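Students often ask why we bother encoding 3D structure as a string. The short answer is that it lets us treat folding as translation between two languages. Here is a chain of 917 residues written in the first language.
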Amino acid sequence: MRLTPTQEVRQANPAPTAGSPGICGKFCQLQSAEEGPSSDPHATDYRAQADSRQLIKQLSATPTIPAQSAAGEPQNVPEAQAALRANKEVFFFRLFSLRLRTLVDKKRVIQSRAVTNSKAPANFVALFEGFQQFDGDLNKLQQFVEINETAMSKILKKSRMKELYLHRAVEVQPCFNRDVLRDLSDRATTARLELEAWAEGENIQFDAARPADRMVVQSFGPDEDDLDMQILQSATTGNLQTLREWTAKLQSSPDARDRATRTFLAAINEFSDDVLQVLLESGLVDVYAEDDINERNCLHESAISGREFVFKAGLAAGVDISRSDVYGRIPLHYACMHGRVEMVRELLAAGPHTVDMMDHDNFTPLIHSIVKNQLACAEQVLCNNARIDPASESDHIPLNLACQHGSLPIVKMLLERRAKVLPDAEGLYPQHMVARASQSPQLLLLLKQHGVDLNQRDKLYQWTPLFHAASEGCVDCLRTLLELGVDSDAIDEKGLAAMYYAAWEGHLECMLLLWAERAKSKPPQRPLDIMNGLKLQGPGGSVDSQMTDFAAPDSMDTADGIPDLELPPPIIPLRRYGHNFLDKKVFVQILFEPGSAGSILFDQAGRHPAARLTISSKLSDLIPRTVMLPIQEDSRIISFQIDNLETFAVDFEIFPTFGSKVIAKTVALPVVFKAEDSSTGSCCLPLFDPRLRSIGQLRFGFQVIKPYHGDPLEITHFATYWKATSAVDSEHNGLVTGSSLTGDHVQLFVQLTKDGVPILHPRFTVDHHGIEIPVCHLTLAQFRAIGAERGVDRSEMIQFLQTRAVEDLAQAHRVLATSFLSLKEVFQHLPLGVNVNLSILYPSAAEERALNMTSLLDVNSFADAILTDVFDQARVARENNPDFMRSVVFTSYNPNICIALNWKQPNCKSATTIDFL
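And here it is in the second language, the structure alphabet:
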């Protein structure tokens, strides 16, 4: 068959073999999160970069056409540099350009044919798959560019000539030319969309600005490929005679061999062995032929579909079993991926040298068997001496991948063959992969039996397996590690314990296990000390003395009570003294779920493995936001401050990572964010492609915080909380930033009645004659009546607050918890010398459903009612005593109410409360 441009490139650059991944594989080695599961997507493989530099040197030494000299350029440029410049674009883009040109040409040929009764030609699937493969390869190149840009910037971060070097020596290279990448991406996306539309009977031109990409071809009669497929369809009903007659007539056709071969390759996946046998017996089929799009031969197709008849026929005819397709995969790769055990055995018998061949993703047959959990296939390749240890640092490690995928039998086979325990590109050992990704704690026992150190620290953050299990919430693995006696007191490079990360990620059961283990052999210790990584009390000092030493910098650093500036670790966001607050604007926060299976779901899984989401609004003063997909934890929250909810609509558009052609689009109308009944909610919107077909869905949560509806405190008269005091709270140390507020505070549990009055009660419900009634269902009068029935004397309570509260804060706390008083009454009678901590009781969504709290006010109304009482008492207190003000701090277990209180005013501190059990 005629060589395609891609095959010509392959002849010029031979297909990669084991240990030599080739040009295309060079940048594939650096891709981990999407393609290679054993390395960090944000890490740079500098050894692979060195290999690429060697490849460039070899390329520059190859005799080529001399580079043309630009005007004014010196003529004495070294020959090697001129050759390198001439080959830059070949090195990075020739394969992509030729591949895309071939696919576009095939698309034009298909579209030029007359439309028949069939939905699409027989080679439509292969062509569409070719465009998807091109998108995947281009995405790898784009990731390669991003990683190397970041790495180059970090390498030069201390250089005074950094910007100049990046602009003059790095960004001018073709691989960093985003315009070229964008053009390739746009052309591929446009061609794929047009092909999809044409296959469904629509003649749509998505890019009218490219006349060169359009070609007018006269439409002839019915397409020959469609006629051939119709003959095959009739043969499936048992009418093989029609097929024999067709093959006999085909003998006289000048392109008989090509037509019969194309028909045979297209029929492998769908038609019976009898049909395929008739085609083979005709003598017209070239069994050595390859598809001109995906470059697969009959052995590839039979390994994918499991057709034993075609497979045996191909082997008997001597079809090359080491021939790779456009993915770099040989038939053995596909047999291992799909669990074709007999085919694996026969392929290995026919070509033992193929057992360690790698595809463009650097996956060997063994790696494919592990990833697809094909135990029998893995056993076959291991019995044929498959390599179990990496040959270079860029290779994947079978043992690590088996541990990551939780395959106990495969891990056992690898360990029995004495596989080495090595760190992957991210610095993680097999035991770390098990602890953070596996739900099979038996793997830890197996690793322990083979002498693997379960206290081994990784090379990333100096974490032991215990840290990974605690951080990821793998309770069974954590319990197994503790039972095996690992060091539960280990700290990482930041001086933090595993308890800290379990608490940060909210894994309560892991926290309880670690707390119980610590309580067995250690003296009591405060929870904050453990989460902050402070050392236990030693024989020569106390915890308090250690805390004093920790928080006692030089006197020059603690002037005015402000500690020296010390950047927190990346896991904790940077805090500022003070915060912005709403005046007249509305705060809208959009929350996405991170991960590949989070907020954005396409109907076809894996259709767009990497893209970017652009979030914009038609309001002119809002800056569009861009989020890379899949959404990461640090980019899951998008915030806007707007003037009017009535006109606020959000456009969501998905683009290729470097392209400018819209893949999908949707819009959230103003009615979504009005939040008339609630300040929070969730929404699910359909994603539409450019042809307005639904191709997926976008889910997100949102919160709307409106400005305080009343008369706020004047900042010129009432100091903000970060300016009101200067002493640093000694009870908050380590990396958990403490409040600047000091002094003793009495805790008041505050919630609202049905008529919107803030009252004091420590529980969401009130027990009235054995019936639990939610407080939000009672009016203030009903609430007081229940208190009176319980014998609560309001006058006695008020007298206690006025006379004895300052002397006995503990008793004041107990009295107020059951006082059945309103917040306004407490402020009126509690002396100004007593600071208050308003612990706001606002239920979570689960608690609201469980208690059937149908009369609960929304977050904005709830916060406004409480702030009104706080501001009113502040004004009264200032009139009575201008030189002294009561300290007020808000706390709550509900983060939504904390966000609302934080944005509605700058005068009082608001913080989310976390209980440690």
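Translate back mentally: The two ends are 73 Å apart (CA to CA). Keep this in mind for the problem set.
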